[in-house]
Amino acid sequence: MNTRQPRQCSEKTRDGSPCGAPREFVDPDTGLCPAHSPGGTDRLRDAGRKGAAATAKKLRGGGLDPDELPSLDSPQAAAVWLEAIGRAVACGRLANRDAVAATKAVREWLRAHEAGTVAEQVTELRQKVEELKKGAQLEVVK
Question: Model's pTM, two decimal places?
Answer without folding.
Answer: 0.47
